[in-house]
Amino acid sequence: MRTFLVLMVAAIGMCACAGDEQAQRQAAVTRCEAVGITQKDPQFETCTYAYGLQAKQDALETAFEKQSNPFPDPRERRVPSWYQHE
């Protein structure tokens, strides 16, 4: 039973990674097309690679920040915009 559970968690994790990578690739394609580099341009693969690396770097930095500071400073809490303290 324990082996089955470990295999199940590993399979779910692999599927999640594949989905994230495909979503990052699609976001990179969209960003390249937004700046005027289409799939016919020779720079398209370089552009999608660069935007993909940037997305991975951003995700890595976000994960590091969350890990290094799991309890944010209470003074940095955001106040809802509808709340007007007088």
Q: Could you give a quick summary of the protein structure above?
A:
With 86 residues, the chain is an all-alpha fold.
Distance between the termini: 59 Å
User: How is the biggest beta sheet arranged?
Assistant: none
- Overall shape: it is flat
Beta-strand portion reads: under 5%
Q: Give the structural class.
A: mainly alpha
Count of alpha/pi helices: 2
Unreliable residue runs: none
Following the backbone from N to C, one meets helices and strands in this order, namely HH
Number of extended strands: 0
Rg, Cα atoms, Å:
20 Å
The helix fraction, in percent, is 55-70%
Overall residue-averaged pLDDT value: 78
Task: Summarize this structure as a short list of keywords or feature phrases.
86 residues; mainly alpha; 0% strand
In words, what does this structure look like?
- This protein is mainly α and 86 residues long.
- It has a domain at 26-56.
- Helix content is 67%, strand content 0%.
- The longest helix is centred in the N-terminal third of the chain and has 33 residues, at 2-34.
- It starts with a helix and ends in an 18-residue tail after the last helix.
- 2% of the residues are buried.
- The mean pLDDT is 78.
